[in-house]
Amino acid sequence: MLVEQRYATAPQQVPSMSTDDLRRHYLVEDLFADDEVRAVHSHHDRVVLVGALPRTGPLGLPGFAEIRAERFFDRREAGIVNVGGPGTVTVDGTEHRLEPTACLYVGRGAEEVVFASDDESAPAAFYLFSAPAHTAYPTTLVEPGGGTVRELGDPLTSNRRTLTQYIHENGVRSCQVVMGVTALHPGSMWNTMPAHTHERRMEVYLYFGLPEDARVVHLLGEPTETRHLVVADRQAVISPPWSVHSGVGTAAYSFVWAMAGENQAFDDMDPHPAAALR
């Protein structure tokens, strides 16, 4: 399995970064490849991102040397969202069917995880977000449209969106992973307004559902020293706790948001109104 290391950064580093520097530190461009399992190990809260795209046959999730564990879930938990066609995730012999945008929580102690697609012409694309875990919670599937659904924003400000919380303090239990999916309504392009920070946890955005020629301009950095990344379909942005995170697209899109840290309260955030950004 291809594993990439991403080391933690401080806000003072951002002003001097070039575009290539920003992309190298915060943008994950190639997490999905046919018949491969790929991973990025971030030193922000020891998060691991995994992309699995089983086109012609099943793919197992291996352990890897960077986490010093025989099996991936020996000391970890994860949320898995399917951003491709229908497929299955089999955990220790129990098969879980994941339709597009379904979410599966896998608790600490799972020994064998296998990804599979129903149809190689439209393969599943499994996105896994993992953090260290101190105890075990049961593996739990949430179907598309399940979980806690929140309608946010306004068409007049182009940010009407449906936010679905899957793994959170009042939903599927976890040690520290918080995870869900946001879908922009037709005609809306802005996500996560007002932009905010939450010093108590890091976050990763995985954008999906974008046309091939469309892009999202994702804001990052301190509120008074913002930068941006231009992001394509199925690319992820690592957002440190000190960084704002918001974006606008050239077409409608969805994204998986996932967090890890010391506080699971979803609304624990420090807003930064647009007029205050620089």
From TrEMBL:
Free-text comment on the cofactor: Binds 1 zinc ion per subunit.
Biological process terms in GO annotation: D-galacturonate catabolic process; D-glucuronate catabolic process; pectin catabolic process
Molecular function, one GO term: 4-deoxy-L-threo-5-hexosulose-uronate ketol-isomerase activity
Pathway(s) of this molecule: Glycan metabolism; pectin degradation; 2-dehydro-3-deoxy-D-gluconate from pectin: step 4/5
Top-level taxon: Bacteria
Catalytic activity: 5-dehydro-4-deoxy-D-glucuronate = 3-deoxy-D-glycero-2,5-hexodiulosonate
Cofactor: Zn(2+)
Stretches of the chain forming a coiled coil according to its record: none
SUPFAM superfamilies xrefs: RmlC-like cupins
Listed PANTHER family: 4-DEOXY-L-THREO-5-HEXOSULOSE-URONATE KETOL-ISOMERASE
Annotated family: Belongs to the KduI family.
Protein name from the UniProt record: 4-deoxy-L-threo-5-hexosulose-uronate ketol-isomerase
Species in which this protein is naturally found: Saccharothrix saharensis
Classification of source organism: Bacteria, Bacillati, Actinomycetota, Actinomycetes, Pseudonocardiales
